[in-house]
Specification:
By secondary structure, this protein is an alpha/beta fold. Helix content is about 45%, strand content about 20%. A 7-stranded mixed sheet has the order 3-2-1-4-5-7-6, sandwiched between helices. Helix 1 (about 15-30) crosses helix 12 and helix 5 packs across helix 8 (about 105-125). The termini are far apart. The structure holds S-adenosylmethionine. The site of S-adenosylmethionine has 19 residues, from helix 5 and strand 2. The site of S-adenosylmethionine (SAM) has 19 residues, from helix 5 and strand 2.
Length: about 300
C-alpha cells in the first residue's frame, strides 16, 4: 500500500496532488525501493502513459536524441519558441498538462539558472571586455536577448558540447556575440589546447557526473580560467523540487549534491591549482551554484 493508491485513475484535476504524492513517496522510501517502485507500479505506469500527452514529459521519456537531459528538453522548461510547434500539436489536454510541468518549481529554477548566468555576464561586462566559455553549452539560451551593450563586451564565447545539434542551435542563440562551437566530450577529452577564458561555467552537466568525474572536469575548468577570472558550476540540490516526477514519470535520473558537497568539490579543485581560487556556494531554487574566483582578482 503506497500513498499513490489514491491516484489510480489519472486525470488533469488530480495531477497537482499526484505530483505532490510522488515527491512524498520518493522521500519516504529508500533509493532502492523507489527505483523498484518506478519500474513496477501500475499506477505510475498509467500516469506515465497519460502524462505523455505533454510534449515536455514525452520528450523526457522518449529521449529522441538518445540520452537523458538534452538541450531540447531544457527548451520545454524555458518555454522557448523553438518547441512551440510541439506544444501547439499537443491538443488541449496535452497543453493543460504542459502548463503544469512548465510551472513546476524545477522548470522555474531552470529558467532562473540561465537568468542568473545572464546577470553574471552583465556584471562582468561592467568591468570591460571579457571572454566566456560554457561546458555542455546545449543551446546556450543565456546568450539570447543579451542587451547590445553587454553582448558587445563579450570578446569571445566558446561553446563546448558533445552533441553537434546542440552546437548548431547555440550558434543561433549567440546572435552578435563572437561564437566558437567546439565539439568535445568535456569528460573524456583534454581541454588544455583551448584559449583560457575569464568566465568558465557549466550548467546542466554536473548533475550527471559522479564525484570523481566531477573533480576531473572541475580541475580542467580551472586550468582554462584566465588569471583574475572565475568558474561557476550548477548542481541540483538534494531538496530540489519535482525529482520524483523527473525520475518516475520522465525516467530522468540525476545526481543531487548538498552545499557542503559542492564546497568540498570546490576545495579539492582549488587545492590542485593552478592558482589560488576561492570557492563559495549559494543556493537558488533547486540548484546550488559553486563559484571559484581567482583570489588575485
Ligand atoms: C541539460 S543540457 C544543458 C544545456 C545548457 N547548459 C543549459 O543549461 O540549458 C546538457 C548538454 O550537455 C551536453 N553534454 C552531456 N555530456 C557531455 C559531455 N561529456 N561533454 C560535452 N557535452 C556534454 C549535451 O549534449 C547537452 O547539450
Amino acid at each position: 500500500m503506497t500513498d499513490l493508491t489514491a491516484f489510480a485513475a489519472p486525470s488533469p484535476d488530480s495531477l497537482p496532488a499526484f505530483m505532490r504524492a510522488l515527491e512524498r513517496q520518493r522521500s519516504a522510501t529508500t533509493r532502492v525501493e523507489w527505483r523498484a517502485l518506478t519500474k513496477t507500479s501500475p499506477i505510475i505506469k498509467g500516469w506515465r502513459f497519460f502524462l505523455s500527452l505533454d510534449p515536455f514529459t514525452r520528450w523526457g521519456l522518449v529521449k529522441p536524441r538518445g540520452y537523458a537531459g538534452d538541450a531540447t528538453l531544457l527548451d520545454f522548461a524555458y518555454g522557448h519558441p523553438s518547441v512551440q510547434s510541439h506544444v501547439e500539436a499537443a491538443g488541449p489536454l496535452g497543453r493543460l498538462i504542459y502548463a503544469e510541468t512548465f510551472a513546476a518549481q524545477s522548470s522555474h529554477s531552470a529558467r532562473d539558472r540561465i537568468a542568473l548566468l545572464r546577470d553574471e555576464v552583465a556584471v562582468m561586462a561592467q568591468q570591460g571586455s571579457f571572454s566566456a566559455m560554457s561546458l555542455a553549452a546545449g543551446h546556450a539560451r543565456e546568450l539570447e536577448g543579451l542587451p547590445a551593450d553587454i553582448a558587445s563586451r563579450l570578446s569571445s564565447f566558446v561553446a563546448l558540447d558533445i552533441d553537434p545539434m546542440s552546437l548548431q542551435t547555440a550558434a543561433d542563440s549567440a546572435g552578435p556575440v563572437p561564437f566558437t562551437p567546439v565539439r568535445r566530450n568535456v569528460v573524456k577529452d583534454a581541454l588544455d589546447d583551448l584559449l583560457p577564458a575569464d568566465l568558465v561555467y557549466s550548467l546542466g552537466l554536473f548533475d550527471y557526473l559522479t564525484d570523481e568525474i566531477a573533480d576531473t572536469v572541475l580541475h580542467k575548468m580551472l586550468s582554462i580560467t584566465r588569471p583574475g577570472g572565475k568558474c561557476i558550476v550548477a548542481n541540483l540540490a538534494h531538496d530540489a523540487a519535482n525529482l520524483g516526477y523527473c525520475e518516475a514519470i520522465m525516467d530522468w535520473w540525476m545526481i543531487t549534491r548538498s552545499a557542503d558537497d559542492m564546497l568540498a568539490m570546490g576545495q579539492r579543485a582549488a587545492a590542485q591549482g593552478p592558482r589560488a581560487f576561492v570557492p563559495s556556494v549559494k543556493q537558488h531554487g533547486c540548484f546550488h551554484y559553486l563559484e571559484l574566483a581567482d583570489s588575485d582578482h
